[in-house]
Amino acid sequence: MNQLKEFSAELPGQDLKFLGSTPYVYHCHHFNLFHDQTVEDALGEEEGFLIRSRAAQSAVWQLLSDLVAKAGASTPAERLQLAAAVFPWMGQGRLELLAGAEGGNVRGDHLHYSFAWREKYGARVRRRFPVDAFAAGFAAAATEVAFSLPPGALASREQSCFACRQPACGFELGRQDVPSQAEPVNREVFLRHIRQPSEGLEEGRIAEIATGLNEFLLGVDGDERGLVQGFGIFITRHLPGYYDQTAYDTIHHIEKHAPQATPAVEELFGESGHVCAFYTIGNILLSPEWEAMVGTLRGDVEEIVTSSVAITRALGFGHWTVDELEPDRRLVMRSSSNYESPFYFERYGLSEKPRCYFFANASRAIMQLAHRVDWASRPELTEDLYLSLFKADLKWRVEETRCCSKGDDVCEVVVTKG
How far is 213 from 218, CA to CA, in rounded Å? Predict the structure, then answer.
């Protein structure tokens, strides 16, 4: 774990985090489950699992190839040991990597996705299709890197899943025809695409809080299960390449095969920003750790908006700034760096429309939380409260007026009262 902390670094001034040269961010189980469910709803269970596992395989192959080189891990055993340490560091649970160059079996215990799914939905929904696409892709990529195989040489299938009420998760790996591997979206790529950071309103306060929270997060380790639990949520250090590839591949598939459904799918990926703001930002604001670091919440609009932006920076979402804020009327957010637009531009080229679905809708959610939640009463952030805020009474409109994936000089979001 100490070695992984040595490999972890930030891009100064841009609030982006890297493990080696691969970007990572903090997201909670509510976001992760919602994101994966959106892919599954759009493409179906089997195709959705395939898209997600391939995206995981691609992102993890990039990550582990870089790390084994930096660590000087030259043998399969050393490389597998490193991969087995990375997985719980990410808060993903534990994997027993038993496969070889021709494939084999992998066992998973307390996997983040299946464990969190059972925790959140298991009492009222019986699931019949596996959920651990990320672990499947991780297992394949770890084995490929360990045995110096090209990316995509192995296919991974989840045979048993804890979310389906089986005792443990199990995967089978086997050789397959090697698909083409996209170029990595790494630190070098981000440096090419991000813009000069700017300062917004309350920059001193935001930067100070972000620095303190970042230092706290760096000291958070997984438990014996390989899970990271804090602020009342399960936290992952995750790969934005996974989120981006799954989201954009899904949207492009819908644009091509069912264009009439594109707005609905884009709206769902945007809703992931609502989920993150409510559960991740909200639980951090209400946590004892926040009170110790920052103080007791007053709950006024300016405080909640600027505090939320500080949290997004500490989580590695990029350099978000508050450019305009008129309570009960308008918010303008800008970002010189985030984890969406560089990936899109590098992988898919210049876009004809804005593509920062998460950034835009997280900004809208921040305004809803700032105006509609009584923070001083320290409410419990339940699913019922989420539904009342974001399904029944969401009166804010959001528009991404500028986006770097379109070639603009900055990503800009305008949130207005509707």
Answer: 9
